[in-house]
Amino acid sequence: MDFLVANFGAILFYVVATITVAAAVGVVTLRNPVHAAVSLLLTFLMVAVLFVMSHAEFLAAVQVLVYAGGIMVLYLFVIMLARIKDLGPGKVFLSGLAPLAVLAGVVLGCLIAIGILLGSMAAGDGGAAAMTAVDGEAIGNTEAVGWLLYLKYLVPFEVVSVVLLVAMIGAIVFGRRDAALAGAGEEVEP
Amino acid sequence: MIGATHYVALSLILLCIGVVGLMVRRNFITVLMSLELMFNAVNVNLIAFSFRLGDLAGQVLAMFVITIAAAEAAIGLGLIIALVRLKDTVALEEADEMGG
Description:
The complex is a heterodimer. Chain A is mainly α. Among the domains of chain A are: about 1-85, NADH-ubiquinone/plastoquinone oxidoreductase chain 6, subunit NuoJ (Four Helix Bundle (Hemerythrin (Met), subunit A)), CATH 1.20.120; about 140-180. Chain A has eight helices and two strands. Chain A is globular and about 55 Å long. Residues about 185-190 of chain A have low confidence and may be disordered. The longest helix of chain B is centred in the last third of the chain and has 31 residues, at about 55-85. Chain B has a domain at about 30-90. Chain B has three helices and no strands. The chains are: A mainly alpha, B mainly alpha. At the A-B interface, α2, α3, α4, α5 and α6 of A face α1, α2 and α3 of B.
């Protein structure tokens, strides 16, 4: 029992990490699209738990609201609107290059792992107080992120909002029925 | 004690699962979901280092990544709807008009 209490953080991390990886494997292997989407949802929620464990409470809330709330609903809408019943594994499941793809993934992983092992890793956890402070003044995590976002990172923030606007217009254009059904190369009538 | 290495390792595993899924699966839905997995791997990395280095900039960057991921999901799902209308399938082999 003492062991559990003393190592609660580590045990929680390993449990959450295991569930995350298992759910991620489910996302890329499951055949039923709804099951894959729910698996993705589980991954998002577990990543939100990891955010809380790293003292990023505001980001965890955003993760749950935007990913689990917004993006997942969008995915499920499309899966059900398009009546996608089955994601494979017929002819379309594995391309002929599948072994090469797996090999490439493993090689990429090994390369990054070597980079991690060779590089100097940030040690300890010096940041718990810094997560909730601006200029040394202790406030909440949300407020601290807000100050940084709207003062130091105001220009990137505006650029990202323009990107969102463009994406919204693009999604509307793609979704228009006449645009989707127009034949390739057909001229618009004068 | 859980150090940054653990988080980076988890992020690495998630990223590799995403990469393999992106290359192996041949339907649009799974490819988009693999992309989301990779975005999340990057976010785990950013948040872990933000905490370890005591720098809030990582959290702000992660927020930008989430925004871009939302934009990507909107565009990608719009493309899926258009592809299903046009071809009645989500298989990427069917979308070969541009000679890919």
